[in-house]
């Protein structure tokens, strides 16, 4: 089978990218041909299809110029991208495919490419890595708290609240994008939506998406990555973006109240300076900032940790870091929100706490720190759990079932 994978970024920028590359390797290993379509970027991995990639655009930088030309440029790319359609047509002329598997495409490639795929009768499967189809801010998080104000397609509320990057212009763009895609019927062209978490599937159904087009398929991970441990413990680890919705102040305060434990923070983001100030005011001796780390270094840090902590205060969909931690034989302390509780079995592979509750998180951290034997058993069970439930072969079976269903649907409609 010839499979087209479409994702905006073609380097390890986040979980969507990691999944795309892992899936590509899995499919190629099963003797399928994989064709990539993405956006140009200086950090992109080498690809034989890069000449077909769409030109890079930094939407936020263009909006900050506050000029008519920049505004039109953003609208032309973020809402309905004709250049994406043109580039994809050229790619498909040279490399025909049997099915298209979409990942994150909003704001750069855009669902405009669905019209090209529809014209060529190519089935469309879309794995959703965030909540953008339901929330213009993509996170169900605004002004420091969980927000579902746009439920029922009331996307205009995101403009009122300036949800997108606290910018009126950016909020207008994404809201306009939501409405235009629905008016054009682009979402109806998707054969199946894949949700990594049951939580996301539930949210789609609540917002009137057809349940028979939604398939829950968790992400997967290859266990043997050959990564050696970095540093020496004992330490707990947070690895990820330093942004407001990640619950980092709660984490800092909780760790500071547990004597003896050290916390490493690997990552960067817009919240870093504020978090560093929080550390300076609370406890700067047992909390260390490492900055952004390459994925292989981060995996080494996970292997060397006692456990990792995911203190999120937003609806996490399916944190890849949990799979990476379990695969490394380490347990997770995670917030009881979004898709996180689907992955962590309380008392078996980790511990859960109420999001935003410093005392509850501190209690769970203290227990992990003071019970090394039980913690080690949790890590062993976590690794066994990943081997059984999130292995590549099982994921391949699930994905191929959806591919075949989508292709069959198109063959039936084509015969009519």
From TrEMBL:
Matching entries from Pfam families are given as: Glyco_transf_4 (PF13439), Glycos_transf_1 (PF00534)
Q: Which InterPro entries match?
A: Glyco_trans_1, Glyco_trans_4-like_N, Glycosyltransferase_grp1
Q: Where's the Glycosyltransferase subfamily 4-like N-terminal domain?
A: 18-224
Q: Which SUPFAM superfamilies match?
A: UDP-Glycosyltransferase/glycogen phosphorylase
List the coiled-coil residues. Answer: none
The molecular function terms of the Gene Ontology recorded here are: glycosyltransferase activity
Question: What are the residue boundaries of the Glycosyl transferase family domain, all occurrences included?
Answer: 229-384
Q: What is the protein name for this chain?
A: Glycosyl transferase family 1
């Amino acid at each position: 089978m010839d499979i087209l994978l479409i994702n905006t970024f073609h380097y390890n920028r986040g979980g969507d990218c990691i999944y795309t590359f892992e899936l590509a390797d899995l499919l190629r290993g099963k003797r399928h041909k994989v064709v990539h379509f993405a956006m140009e970027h200086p950090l992109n991995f080498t690809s034989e299809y890069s000449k077909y990639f769409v030109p890079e655009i930094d939407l936020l930088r263009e909006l900050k110029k506050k000029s008519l030309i920049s505004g039109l440029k953003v609208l032309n790319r973020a809402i309905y991208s004709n250049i994406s359609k043109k580039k994809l047509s050229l790619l498909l002329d040279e490399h025909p495919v049997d099915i298209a598997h979409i990942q994150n495409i909003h704001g750069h490639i855009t669902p405009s490419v669905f019209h090209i795929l529809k014209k060529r009768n190519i089935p469309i499967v879309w794995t959703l890595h965030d909540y953008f189809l339901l929330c213009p801010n993509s996170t169900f998080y605004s002004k420091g708290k969980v927000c579902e104000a746009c439920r029922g397609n009331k996307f205009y509320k995101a403009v009122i609240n300036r949800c997108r990057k606290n910018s009126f212009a950016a909020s207008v763009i994404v809201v306009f994008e939501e409405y235009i895609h629905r008016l054009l019927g682009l979402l109806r062209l998707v054969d199946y939506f894949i949700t990594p978490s049951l939580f996301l599937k539930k949210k789609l159904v609540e917002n009137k998406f057809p349940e028979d087009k939604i398939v829950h398929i968790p992400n997967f991970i290859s266990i043997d990555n050959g990564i050696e441990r970095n540093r020496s413990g004992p330490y707990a680890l947070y690895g990820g973006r330093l942004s407001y919705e990640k619950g980092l102040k709660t984490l800092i305060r909780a760790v500071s109240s547990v004597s003896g434990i050290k916390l490493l923070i690997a990552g960067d983001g817009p919240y870093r300076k504020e978090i560093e100030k929080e550390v300076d005011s609370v406890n700067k001796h047992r909390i260390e900032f490492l900055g952004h780390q390459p994925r292989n270094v981060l995996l080494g840090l996970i292997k060397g940790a006692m456990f990792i902590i995911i203190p999120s205060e937003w609806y996490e969909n399916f944190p890849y870091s949990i799979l990476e931690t379990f695969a490394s034989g380490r347990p997770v302390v995670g917030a009881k929100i979004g898709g996180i509780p689907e992955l962590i079995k309380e008392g078996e592979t980790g511990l859960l706490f109420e999001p935003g509750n410093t005392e509850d998180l501190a209690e769970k951290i203290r227990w992990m720190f003071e019970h090394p034997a039980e913690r080690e058993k949790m890590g062993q069970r976590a690794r066994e759990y990943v081997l059984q439930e999130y292995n590549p072969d099982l994921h391949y079976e699930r994905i191929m079932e959806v591919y075949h269903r989508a292709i069959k649907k198109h063959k039936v409609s084509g015969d009519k």
